[in-house]
Automatic annotation (TrEMBL):
This is MFS transporter. It is a multi-pass membrane protein. The chain crosses the membrane at residues 21-41, 53-75, 82-101, 107-126, 147-164, 170-189, 217-239, 251-271, 283-302, 308-329, 350-368, 374-394. It comes from Rhizobium loti (Mesorhizobium loti). Residues 21-370 form the Major facilitator superfamily associated domain. It comes from the Bacteria. It is found in: Cell inner membrane. The lineage of its organism: Bacteria, Pseudomonadati, Pseudomonadota, Alphaproteobacteria, Hyphomicrobiales.
Amino acid sequence: MSLPPLSPEQLVKPRHFELRMSLIFGTLFISLGTHLPYFPLWLQAKGFHAEQIAVILAAPMFLRVVTTPLLTTLADRARDRANVYVALVAASLLLSAGYFLTPTYAMVLAVSLGLTIVWTPHSPIADSLALSGVRRFGSNYASMRKWGSICYLCANVAGGFILAATGPQAVPVIIVLALAAALVAGLLAPRMGRPRKASPLSAAEIQHAAPSLFNAYFLYFTFGVGIITASHAFLYGFVSIYWKSIGISDSVVGLLWAWGVVSEVCMFLLFNRIFASVSVVKVMVIAGIGSIVRWILFPLVWPLGLGIAGFFAVQSLHSVSVAMVLIGLQKMIAETVSEERTGAAQGIAYFFNGFFMAAVTLASGPLYDRLGVDGFLVMIPIAIVGLALIGLAARSAPKRPVRRGDERTLVDEARHTVAGK
């Protein structure tokens, strides 16, 4: 027995759906493209040492692993997930103004904790809206999501040049302006209504065809993704500080971050041509191996005299260690998770990503104090553990993607469009 039909409103594709979702992804990632590379530099400029920086970065991550799944699940139950998105962006804009207050350690930590509650769910809710379009209308996930990466890249480059001219004090200003733009885009978000819910008459079939998210394959896979992602914590927390310590300018730091995103965008554009017939487990194995290679090479670049060109080369592996993880996770969810559970699935994935990223980020402060750039070598065994969990997921993988009645065709399309077809 199939799911109940879509309502008349849900049968109609919102006007300019792909354009509006691209605008949401783009504005969403401008603030992230400023916060990730440059917020640690702002913290350092305010006099915080490495262990304090690690706590300010990690403590919000521990908090959001609890709050994000709750808020994404709430979004699934709301009349429209877009309304929840708008409310969270508005709250983020208000809280981000707290960085203009006197930047004591307690104040910055408190603002960061409050901000992470309402900021972190932006991306999984946007992903859920986009995947609803993939399932219902055959929209192309990668063609929408790539604008997030492109705007992230622009924020990296522009942020570097702005900081070179003004110093790190510009970071909070850029974040506030970016969140204001995200709020405007959110008001234009396509309204999709509630996700489709199962009819009581089809409950038995759905339980058979789409088991609980707490199944071995889903849990091993998202667990492994979370740990591979967490191996990037040292990079995200301290690579900008390291580059500055060896004399690389703010503008070049921005270009190095941007080059990683260029490689990510290239993977979004080329993924389906190269990996269309590759299973999602193999995609994730390749991503894990790419992460390991990246952490081996990073500490060697400067001692071997490879200079800035060497860092650009290593940053090219962002296309493998980050982009393939992101695409692979969304591909897995599209293949195996029913639409009414998409928000919850995104929340669980963010739970694992956030928890392990927080733990490794917290450890990265002392690692950087004691080992400097050699702290990257500690990321290698972390990525290996993630690979092992992906291997366990492969042993329990479903024989075929979830299909149900009248959604069979859309789910088949989603398997390809989410990967960039």
